[in-house]
Amino acid sequence: MPRPEMHGVVVIGAGHAGVEAAASLRAGGYSGPVTVVGAERHLPYQRPPLSKEMLADGGDPGALALRSEAFFADRGIVLRHGPAVDVDRARQQVHIAGDRPLDYDHLVLATGAAPRRIELPGRSLRGVAELRTLDDALALRASLVGAGRMVVLGGGFIGMEVASAARKRGVDVSVVELADRLLGRAVSPPVSAAVAAHHRADGVGLCFGEHATELVGDAGHVTGVRTGSGRVLPADLVVLGIGATAEDGLARRAGLATDGGVLVDRWLTTSDPRIIAIGDCAVVCDPATGTRRRLESIQNATDHGRYAAARILGEERPYCALPWFWSNQGALRLQLVGIAGDSAELVVRGDAARFSVFCMRDGRLTAVESVNDPGTHMAARRLLERATPGEAELVAVDYDVRALARRVLARETAVA
Amino acid sequence: MPKVTYVYDDGSEHTVEVAVATSLMRAALRNQVRGIVGECGGAATCGTCHVYLDHSTEEFGPPSGDEDEMLEWTAAPRAENSRLSCQLVPTEEGAHLVVRVPAEQV
Ligand SMILES: Cc1cc2nc3c(=O)[nH]c(=O)nc-3n(C[C@H](O)[C@H](O)[C@H](O)COP(=O)(O)OP(=O)(O)OC[C@H]3O[C@@H](n4cnc5c(N)ncnc54)[C@H](O)[C@@H]3O)c2cc1C
Ligand code: FES
User: Fold this and answer.
1) B22 in contact with A at a CB cutoff of 8 Å?
2) Could you tell me which of A328, A346, A350, A330 has the C-alpha nearest to residue A338?
3) A37 contacts: CB under 8 Å, gap ≥ 6
4) For the 2Fe-2S ferredoxin-type domain, which residue ranges apply (chain B) (predicted)?
5) pLDDT tens track of chain A, all 416 residues?
6) Which residue, among A222, A227, A243, A233, has the nearest Cα to A128 in the 3D structure?
7) In Å, how far from its chain's centre is CA A8?
């Protein structure tokens, strides 16, 4: 007989993953106490708009709430103001600064990620911003109003989204990127090239093969970025978009296994069977192949959250989901599904304005990256959720994945 | 304020008031309407905010080309009146809109 649940579930981190876990527990019929400990003062909110609409159009921060206050109250999900400072695994308790400890039967770590730290002279000058939280976004939006010239360090998703938003407000923008292309870690070269062309046409200056060596300033405020080649790019606003690292300090202090994030097995369980880690902070390890992967996406966070709830409610099957990501940069719309891998062979279909890249590994389709091509992308997503077609199948339909997806879905309906 | 009635798959209804300029996806999430996911937050990229819009309303223009393409691949079958609720933003003060929420979104 299972041991009766007395203390319930404590979730640390009130972001996309944590809130989804709590909501799914209730939706799945969990009746014990559910507490979500959050470090931020806002009602849990959506992060993606922070680098998009929120900066560009001056969107309303209230509209970002993931769920209403009543949603939590009606479901008996208690939101506690943190941060959680320690986990006592022997006692199964979470310590919150200046508050009584919380007991748990199951603990869910959903602490997310934080902007990568950079040791750079001038880092603490005013006008140097990073972007992770709603407060960061509100501050950056205020700075954009008076800004004339902005330099973004890092040509990743957040950097390029911020660049678009700033251009929309008439700010002069340059991006400094060490690699020779944009979004290098996430997308294939044809997509990088399309993204670069889009931003160039929008008036964004792109400096490849360059890195910042110093932020220069005057009277405590940033005035420019010195790069490895010795030149100084003038700026009254500098945004650091150099990536994020997992928030795993709490897990490390608690003695859980970590390696660039909280290590979990295919059941998203940490080295302590009573603790699950989900979302941006979790490194999922496949024992069969030894591959380890930490993803930063809404799909990953919400699917992890749903799975964590199901697992606590008795799910036996390991976690399995198809990775998916999107980014909007002005009029440019990117959608990514699956994991391409370095050795992928690429087949590009479409024209410069609208195309998809099919990434093949060992003769099978593993990922599709789309630029302004939502129909093809959604079809690919539906297809990859069900099967990974081989090259012969794709060639037979001339890479028309809509046709292939229609066929697969029709077969499914026929069987059902 | 405009009103929106969300009709669930089992026929039950949930009516909420929506501020002008708030999308039907956002209003659904904020008011605990079941069955609308809105994974992409309203960027018309995920297709998890699919609804069937009652024909008695002509408040909105036709779907854009991109919305139209997305609608072909929603989890529940597409109908003539299928829309992405994140793209439906009421602009008329007194409007009363009716949408049906499909049984599945993901
Ligand atoms: C600006 C921006 C734009 C993005 N755009 C996209 C996009 O377009 N598409 C996409 O798929 N993904 C996007 N992402 C990534 C996506 O937001 C993350 O993958 C997702 O938020 C991860 O969810 P999470 O719950 O794991 O972490 P988070 O949402 O970061 O939530 C973690 C929470 O835990 C809290 N916390 C940390 N430590 C403690 C503690 N000790 N005690 C209590 N609370 C704690 C933090 O304050 C935080 O609120 C974007 C991210 C950012 C920052
Ligand atoms: S919320 Fe993603 S398409 Fe509407």
Assistant:
1) yes
2) A346
3) A10, A11, A12, A13, A14, A80, A81, A82, A83, A84, A94, A96, A102
4) 2-105
5) 445 558 999 999 999 999 999 999 999 999 999 999 999 999 999 999 999 989 976 677 888 889 989 999 999 999 999 999 999 999 999 999 888 999 999 999 999 999 999 999 999 999 999 999 999 999 999 999 989 999 999 999 999 999 999 999 999 999 999 999 999 989 999 999 999 999 999 999 999 999 999 999 999 999 999 999 999 999 999 999 999 999 999 999 999 999 999 999 999 999 999 999 999 999 999 877 888 999 999 999 999 999 999 999 999 999 999 999 999 999 999 999 998 877 779 999 999 999 999 999 999 999 999 999 999 999 999 999 999 999 999 999 999 999 999 998 888 878 77
6) A222
7) 28
**CA A296 / ligand 1 centre spacing (Å):** 8
- What's the rounded Cα separation, in Å, for the pair A6 and A248? 27
The complex's ipTM works out to 0.91
- B13: tokens are 């209804």
**Residues in the ligand 1 pocket, defined by CB under 6 Å:** A 12-18, 37-40, 47-48, 50-51, 82-84, 110-113, 131-132, 158, 247, 250, 279-281, 296-299, 301, 325-327
Chain A touched by B26 (CB under 8 Å): yes
Helix (H) or strand (E) holding A303: helix A298-312
| Pairwise CB contact (< 8 Å): B69 & A374 | yes
DSSP A47-113: SGGGGTHHHHT---GGGGBSS-HHHHHHTTEEEEE--EEEEETTTTEEEETTS--EE-SEEEE---E
Helix (H, G, I), strand (E, B) or coil at B14: strand
Q: Which residue of A has its CA nearest to B18?
A: A63
A93 touches B: beta carbon within 8 Å: no
Nearest chain B Cα distance for residue A71, angstroms: 6
**Record: contact B45-A381, CB cut-off 8 A:** no
The encoded tokens of residue A282 equal 């979790």
- Inter-chain residue contact B41 with A49, CB threshold 8 Å: yes
Residue with tokens 């999430």: B29
Residue B63 beta carbon below 6 angstroms from any ligand 2 atom: no
Geometric angle at alpha carbon A235, from A233 and A236, rounded to 5°: 165
Chain-chain contact of B29 with A302 (C-beta, under 8 angstroms): no
Q: In what order do the strands lie in the sheet with A282-285?
A: A262-264, A282-285, A292-293
Please give the number of the atom of ligand 1 that sits closest to the Cα of A83.
Answer: 42
- Contact: B43, A328; criterion CB under 8 Å: yes
Q: Does domain B3-105 have CATH number 3.40.50.300?
A: no
